[in-house]
Amino acid sequence: MNDDMPSPSRPSAPVVAPILHKGVRYEQDMQSYSHGGTQSGGYLVAIDPKSGERLWMLKVYEVPSQDAAGVSTPGRYFRTMRLLPERDEIEIENEAGGKYIVDLKQRTSTWISGPDSVHK
């Protein structure tokens, strides 16, 4: 390998393990564009683990667009994802440090702390 060759300025999206809860697998949706998504990153998908069927998809957070500045938007992916004990909720932290709670019953996302494109 040539050390003088430039390397990508941005590493690959973090690998975040899926969560199995009450017979449904929840994971970061890396195929959201193929299913109606409008941005790179920021989507959670619920999947039936037996059939592989996508049950629903939720935009957890908005990824700020840089297109107006002439720069392609690289996406913003999950850094961590954890099921909150005794609750039907998942806490998600994105690469920028924004934290969100996803209510799995209501299929809603609430910003709780850190950087966010809406809560500045």
From TrEMBL:
Question: Which domain of life, per UniProt?
Answer: Bacteria
Return the protein name: Uncharacterized protein
Q: Species name for this entry?
A: Dyella acidisoli
> Upper taxonomic classification of the species?
Bacteria, Pseudomonadati, Pseudomonadota, Gammaproteobacteria, Lysobacterales
